[in-house]
Structure formats: C-alpha cells, structure tokens
Amino acid sequence: MNNFTVMLKKEFVQMVREYKIIWLPLVFLFLGMTQPIISYHLPSILEALGGSEGIIIDPSMAAQSGGEVLATTLASQFDQLGLIIIIVSLMGIVQSDKSNGMLAFILTRPVKVGSYIGGKLVSNYLFIALSVAIGYVASYFYVQFLFTSIPLADLLTALIFYLVWVLFIVGFTTMISTIFNGQGIIALISIVFLIFCRMIVGLSPIIDSINPASMSHYAMEVLIIGSINKGVIFSGLASILLTIFTLSITNHWITKKKFSNEQ
Amino acid sequence: MLRITNLEKSYTSKKVLNGLDLNIKKGEILGFVGGNGAGKTTTLNVITGIVDYQKGKVEINGLSKEAGIEYKKQFFFIPDTINVFKNVSGYDWICFLMNLYGEKDQKRFDQYIEKFDMQEALKKPMGTYSYGMLRKVLLIAAFVISPPIIIMDEPLNGLDPNAVLVFKELIKHYAELGGTVFFSTHLLDIAEKVCSTVAILKEGKIILHDDIQNILGEESLESIFMEAQVYERKASIN
Hints:
The structure holds 2 protein chains of 2 kinds.
Chain A: H1 3-17, H2 20-50, H3 66-90, H4 95-99, H5 102-107, H6 113-146, H7 152-179, H8 183-199, H9 205-210, H10 214-225, H11 232-257
Chain B: E1 2-10, E2 15-24, E3 29-34, H1 40-48, E4 55-60, H2 69-72, E5 75-78, H3 90-100, H4 106-115, H5 131-145, E6 149-153, H6 161-176, E7 180-185, H7 188-194, E8 197-202, E9 205-211, H8 212-216, H9 221-237
Parallel strand pairs in B: 3-7, 3-8, 5-6, 6-7
Antiparallel strand pairs in B: 1-2, 1-4, 8-9
Helix pairs in contact in B: 3-5, 4-5
C-alpha cells in the first residue's frame, strides 16, 4: 500500500466517521427529486395559489420534455444550491488540517505533499461525483415517470460533461481552502467565483471555451437538443488543465509555506 | 546519526537559532534542555521540516531534507501539541501511521498496547482521550514503527506516573537496541535519570553538550543548568 492509497483510505474513513457519506448523497437525492416534481405539479400549484383572482394557465403552453426538466435539475438545483453545498462540504478540506496542526503532523511523516493533496482530491471528488450521480439518477427516474423518456446515451454523456465541471469545483475550492485561513472567506470566494463562472456562460464563445462552467451548459444541451456541441472538447480540456493548475498552486503553496502558520 | 551544523533561523524580527551545532550519535538518549524561548521547539521543527531555516545544515544518517520521503523515514516526531481526528479510534490512528511508515508488525503493536495499558482505550474515538492518553497513542506508534531516531517535544507532559515509568524503561530499551532518542524537556530530574547525554540550549546556541556522567559529578542537573545559564550571561556581559 503506497502512501497515496493510505491517505485515500484515511479520507474515506473520515467521511464515514463524520457522516458525510450519508448527508451529502441525501441532499443531492432531495435536490434531484425536487425539480421534476415541482415542474410536474407547477400548473396545479399555480392554480391553487391563484384563488378567486385566478391565474390563467395557457392551455397551448408546450409541455416540457424529459430532457428539459433534467437539464433544469442541473441548472436550477445542482448549479445553485448544490454548488453551495459542495463548497460548504469542502471549505475546510485543507484549512481545518492547517489550523489544527494536522497538516504539519501528517507532512512530518513519510508523505509527499502530492500524496496528501491527491488523497484529498480523489476521495472528495469521487464521493461528490457519486452524490451528484445519485441525485441525477433520482431526477431521471422521476422524469421518466412524469415526463418523456431520455435516451440513455444522452443521460450518461450529460453526466460525464457535468462531472468535469464538478472536478473543477473541487480543485478550485481545495486551492482556496489552502490559501486562506478562515472558512467564511473560503466559502465566500469560492461561491462568488464559481457562480460567476456559471453566470457568464453563453456571453462569449471565447470565454466559454476556457470556462469550466460551460461544461454544465454543454451537459444541458445534450439533454435538451440531443446533440453534442463541438466546443465541448476544448472546454473539457481547458477545465482539466485549469484543475491541474489549481492543484499545482495548492501543492506549491503547501510546500512553500512549510505547512504551518510560520511567523 | 543526527548532525546539525551552524544552524540559523530567524522569524521576522527575531533570531531564534544562532549558529546551533549538535551531533547526536546512534544509541544516544539526548535531553534537550533550555529555558522558555531558548529555541528548543524551533530546533525540533527545523529538523522535522515544519519550518525552514536560513543557514546551516541538518542531516540524519547522511540524508538532508532534500532526500524527501527517505529523510522523513529516518525519524518519528511527537509534537508538544497533539491534534487528532476526534472520530477515529486510537487503534485506527496507529494503524494509519504504521501504514505510512510501511510497518506491519502486529505482534509488536499488541505488546506495546499492553505495556501502556491501552487495550480498551484504543477502541474508543480519540475525541474522548485525555492529553496523556493521546501522548501514549503516539508513543506506542513511535515504538512500534521504530525509526532510527525518535524526536519528541516535551514527551512527559500529561503522562501519569505509571506511563512515565513505562516511558523511561522503553526509551532505555530502545537505545540499547540501537535506536536514538532526542527529546526536549524542562523536567531536569527526569532528564538526569533517563538521558545518556544532555544538551543545554540558550539563546539559540548549545552552551553545553556532554555525557550525563561527565556533567553531573556531585551536583544535580538543575544546579548545573542554572550555573551554565549564569556563566553564559557573565561571558556575554564581559
């Protein structure tokens, strides 16, 4: 067992002991289920809320397709509340080890900084990806039941695209958690920056090509249109390179700062 | 074994280590003694790589910290402040540390658990442990892993009398087997009884480093420590 594997195992044990393994998938399960149910019952809800004044539901309004509803799950649930929850679950990923002396303790053992970061990133990414996938599949089942069906290939392709964006979220938050010392500021910077990335998608093709958040947009396109945008290859590569860049900064920061709050 | 040459370390405004030289031989139990702010913890932090230094050389078995993992495998460090994952049991924590050092000797692990009387406690989460119990966990890990040198910062803090006795017995045994122990302490009577050599640190410099028999004679380590401090003060005034 090499030290990367040991660190990976330690992270998984910690997730189990801190019950993260239960609450995070449950949150995404809830988020995934919510969107199709709300979309399905929205006309009835509006009708009920309209009261005597009445709200006119246009009968000619086009019914949403299954793909559109699932795409809305990604855009409205996962990219907003889901994103914030991922950041909150990650904000202490390195910061807490740094503040309680655990980082110094571990790195005075025969562990490379790369193994430490790798163990954190891989374990958290795999677990968050699994949680997102659980919520996504739950949403898919509701969509299948309440709306039209979605081709399985489109479903999987969109999930893969979306998980590239999630990879960047994990890498970026890990970097911010390494650089800053307060959990509040870590959460604030990560949330503002990542939501900003998501908001500017579609404004310019050039920005889109280097914006990791456009992977979420491409995932939605696959679900709605059923075809893959050509820009996905470049954006995908850019997202992976940017994630590697964030990890290099994390690695450099820990190595350079000697993993302690040196005076 | 451990060789420190002309070590200098400054924090922003203060020079903490001022040309420190120290040579520790294999099988030595060195007590590192000094007043508050003398630079004991900084020296240990430099050796273990927690903080960087401006000048000098630190080598363990001929390896400098540039050797990376191989250098880190030469020692096991027990810091003064012990932080652990509160939800993880002591048993799992020691296994984790053993895995990091590639140590698999379960029999030896069981023997040390028994010596420190931690059979039941190790099954519980470490969040429930006292400071002394956390120290015992790390001492067990250190003796099981058995690196060339065990480095400890104030190892006796928080230990109950029984654990102190076990500690003394074990480090002597460890040194007899060829291991080296280097620890900082302010408990001079313990240092007197346990250490084979003592180094006195003052203002970032070693002012005395010798075998305990050569140092002691008729006097206690406490009075020698005080004398050395006063002598150095007079020398610096003159």
